[in-house]
Every structure is written in structure tokens, then in C-alpha cells.
Amino acid sequence: MHIDENKKFDKRTIEKNLREGIVSAEEWKKFLRSLPDVSGNADYVIIEEEKGEATEDRPEKSAESVEKEEAPEKK
């Protein structure tokens, strides 16, 4: 099978290439070590939460759950 050398380590196919022996684990490690450190190119963004906005630790309530909480229980 012909493999384009430019796509041999493509993140979309690397798992398949490792599994099929097209790329060895040592070749993969060597490739990863050769990548430049570009962490200095990162931009940081501060996102301020607006009042009433859902967050990961405080999910937004559905209309149905709000109705259940507000409605008095019938006996």
C-alpha cells in the first residue's frame, strides 16, 4: 500500500497506521519529539459569566424542572 509520506503521521490516520504497522511506535515518538514548541503562540481569553448564565458546575435549568420546583405538591 502506498502511503503519502506527508500524511504518514496525520492525526486522522495515525492510530490506523500504528495498528497496521505502517508506522512503528519508535517512529511516532521520534516524530512527536521533532515537533516545535509553539506554546508561546497561545492567546488567553478571559470569559466573564453573565448573571443567570449556565456554567459547567451550575447547569441551566429546563422550564420543566423550574415548574416542578415552584409548584406546590398536591396530597
Structure description:
The protein has 75 residues and is mainly alpha-helical. The chain has a domain at 5-36. Helices cover 32% and strands 0% of the residues. It has 3 helices and no strands. It has helices spanning 14-19, 25-34, 63-70. The N and C termini lie far apart (73 Å).
Provide a compact summary of the structure.
The protein is mainly α. It has three helices and no strands. It has a domain at 5-36.
Count of helical stretches:
3
Beta-strand percent range: under 5%
Mean pLDDT: 80
User: Count the strands?
Assistant: 0
What is the structural class? mainly alpha
Shape: elongated
Largest β sheet strand count, sense and barrel closure: none
Low-confidence stretches: none
What's the N-to-C terminus distance? 73 Å
Rg calculated over all Cα atoms: 25 Å
Percent helix among the residues? 25-40%
Order of helices and strands: HHH
